[in-house]
Write a structure and sequence with these properties.
The structure holds 2 protein chains of 2 kinds. Chain A is α+β, with helices and mostly antiparallel strands. Chain A is built from 2 helices and 5 strands; from the N terminus they run βαβαβββ. Chain A has one domain (3-74): Ubiquitin-like (UB roll). In chain B, the strands form 2 sheets. In chain B, strands 3, 4, 6, 8 and 9 form a 5-stranded antiparallel beta sheet that branches. The longest helix of chain B is centred in the middle third of the chain and has 18 residues, at 49-66. The chains are: A alpha+beta, B alpha+beta.
Chain lengths: 80, 136
């Protein structure tokens, strides 16, 4: 089963209760992975409000995940 | 150059401009004491540093391609800031002011909309809220 690292920041970090975790998952893409994690951990943000980064590059929510990927779900940003 | 800093931006020197520069526009975004009728005591900024620095550098490169300017820099604060502290500083230098103003506004707008930085407001009374986290 592919092993994926998931990183959390800001509201997602608080709702998950940690900054990073390593998961064995068969979810094929970030959209499916987020849906599963949201159901498990009660994330309040809808998937459509998020962006995602894979290995520190912006990516699509339907990009295929592969073993060793680092996935970061990015809540709506608020810099400045 | 785009950078993040945990230190007070107001204590950092502003970059020197070359002699071909006739205008430098400096924007500083400052922590305000009221937002949406809430009394704000402090703001907490958190960044995904690896991606924020890359995305910020892209924005500065886009500004340099889009406007006839000589240089553009942006520094964004992380951590807990009190009211009155500088959260972001953008410095743009150009031969003429019009382009410097335009590029400076472009950079601020793009940073606010694209760079993975988040802020949490701390209100008087102790409540806190992540900004933009309630949007659908």
């Amino acid at each position: 089963m592919p092993k994926i690292t998931v990183q959390y920041f800001a509201i997602l970090r608080e709702q998950r209760g940690l900054s990073e975790e390593s998961l064995d998952t068969t979810e094929s893409n970030p959209a499916n992975l987020y849906a599963k994690l949201a159901a498990q951990h009660g994330f309040t943000l809808p998937s459509k409000s998020l962006r995602v980064a894979i290995n520190d590059e912006f990516a699509s929510m339907d990009q295929s995940l592969k073993d060793g990927d680092a996935v970061t779900f990015i809540a709506p940003v608020a810099g400045g | 150059m785009f950078s993040l800093t945990p230190f007070r931006i107001e204590d950092l020197p502003k970059p020197a401009a070359p002699s071909s520069v006739g205008a430098t526009v400096i924007f500083e975004g400052i922590v305000r004491d009221v937002n949406d009728d809430h009394q704000v005591e402090a703001l907490e900024y958190e960044a995904m540093e690896s991606l924020a620095v890359k995305e910020g550098a892209k924005i500065l490169a886009q500004a340099l391609a889009k406007f006839p300017i000589e240089s553009a820099e942006c520094i964004h604060r992380t951590g807990l800031l009190q009211v009155g502290e500088v959260a972001i500083r953008v410095v743009v230098s150009a031969a003429h002011r019009k382009e410097a103003f335009g590029a400076c506004e472009f950079i601020v707008n793009e940073v606010k909309s694209r760079v993975p930085i988040w802020k949490k407001e701390h209100y008087s009374g102790g409540a806190t809220e992540w900004i933009n986290a309630d949007q659908m």
